[in-house]
Write a structure and sequence with these properties.
The protein is of the alpha/beta class. It is built from 17 helices and 13 strands.
Length: 433
């Protein structure tokens, strides 16, 4: 079998066999197939696509290109949640503790942020001492003990994806549904959980700009999960404005804490309750989403969700007093108010512009080697649908940088104000199962 024949076959629009796909993925992973042939292969897939069976085989081949995690020693149904990323997305910091408080076992391997989307690991590391590097034994023991652990992905998981993703990034082949779906699902499936909830975002601050494309990706990933024997479901959620009010690492952790105290912003609270309720149905702890919502709301009201976050932080070496006293998180040296240029209603908040501005203030990375300023970010005071007066504060920029007045102007320009009343948009648009 030759790589060039496989490339030619896909270039001409023919489906590949299981043997051909596994040969190509294994050969590229171990270095027998060079980058230039893998580039041609990904471009062929970009233009010709893959059918459902091909995508499932591709995912399975990538999943088994390295180590897979055996979580059978964890008692009960193991659940995981994955977000395709967005501005202000700190959902795992609240959903994990909430489902654990309701009896589920959430075993999550997470990644770092690059560009305008922040990573869960970066947010957790804003808590002094928090350790993202547990051994498999420690990871399993912690999930058994408290129902919850969030750690970094090991380098031995899905090496094929690491190589392919880096290649796709520089060959204009990132935006291919089969390649995105197999990339995400190979990592999720290798992590060993029984059930996966995918939060697929769409809008200006998301990878998928339209609901139609997000739906297509979600359906593809749900099919892959089911074909490979996992209970997989997806939500399509709005990222046409930042999620919640906080954008930036420590600021987002504080918002997650406030949410677990029953004081979070409406859209973020609704997403956390909705996602947690779905996960409880997947864990077979409730018979309906409605019953799940009641359990989750009770875990907020009685403080058990917050107690689980504290327990996770303490178990992973972090300082739990930051959970009890979030005012301990250091503030940036400059907190600059941004004012509304005129009165009216907030029609739109450009998520991408807010995310890029937060990165420029120090909250994100342009390169993986960049150091994040945990105190930097943006706190919104208004959301889409809110009324605003002229010269009213619409956001605060938190930064330790000087000479960033142009960024403050960009934040103001990210808010579109209209004279006509605007309806509050839903956060969860669809559930796909």
């Amino acid at each position: 079998m030759r790589a060039v024949d496989i490339i030619e076959k896909k270039r001409d629009g023919h489906p590949l066999t299981e043997e051909e796909i596994r040969f190509f993925i294994q050969g590229y992973t171990n270095g027998d197939i060079p980058d230039y042939q893998a580039s041609a292969f990904t471009m062929a897939v970009y233009f010709q696509g893959m059918n459902e069976e091909e995508t499932a085989i591709m995912t399975d081949a990538m999943m088994h290109s390295g180590e897979t995690i055996d979580l059978s020693a964890i008692q009960g149904v193991k659940v995981d949640k994955h977000s395709t990323g967005g501005v202000g997305d700190k959902t795992s910091l609240a959903v994990g503790p909430l489902v654990a408080a309701c009896g589920a076992k959430l075993a999550k391997m997470s990644g770092r942020g690059l560009g305008h989307t922040g990573g869960t690991l970066d947010k957790l590391e804003s808590i002094p001492g928090f350790n993202i590097s547990l051994t498999s034994e420690q990871f399993i023991q912690q999930v058994n003990d408290i129902g919850l652990a969030i750690i970094g992905q090991t380098t031995s998981i899905v090496p094929a994806d690491k190589k392919l993703y880096a290649l796709r990034d520089v060959t204009a082949t990132v935006e291919s549904i089969p390649l995105i779906a197999s990339s995400i699902m190979s990592k999720k499936l290798a992590a060993g959980t029984d059930a996966i909830l995918l939060d697929v975002k769409f809008g200006s601050g998301a990878f998928m700009k339209t609901q139609e494309r997000a739906r297509e990706l979600a359906r593809e990933m749900v099919k892959i999960g089911k074909n490979l024997g996992r209970d997989t479901r997806a939500t399509l959620t709005d990222m046409d404005q930042p999620l919640g009010l906080a954008v930036g690492n420590a600021l987002e952790v504080k918002e997650a804490i406030a949410t677990l105290q029953g004081k979070g912003p409406h859209d973020f609270v609704e997403l956390c309750i909705g996602a947690s309720a779905l996960l409880l149905t997947q864990a077979k702890l409730v018979d309906s989403v409605e019953e799940g919502r009641k359990k989750v709301e009770a875990a907020i009201a009685d403080g058990s969700g917050l107690a689980k976050l504290r327990a996770m932080v303490e178990a992973q070496g972090g300082d739990p007093t930051y959970i009890d006293h979030p005012e301990k998180f250091p503030l940036a040296s400059r907190i600059v108010p941004i004012y509304a240029p005129r009165a009216g209603y907030i029609k739109r908040i450009d998520s991408l512009a807010i995310g890029i501005s937060a990165m420029k203030l120090g909250a994100g990375r342009e390169k993986m080697t960049d150091t994040i300023d945990m105190s930097a970010g943006i706190m919104l005071t208004k959301k889409v649908g809110d009324a605003v007066e002229a010269n009213e504060v619409i956001a605060y920029c938190h930064t330790n940088k000087e000479n960033v007045d142009d960024v403050f102007a960009e934040v103001q320009q990210a808010f579109e104000i209209t004279s006509e009343k605007v309806a509050y948009p839903p956060i969860i648009h669809e559930v796909i199962s």
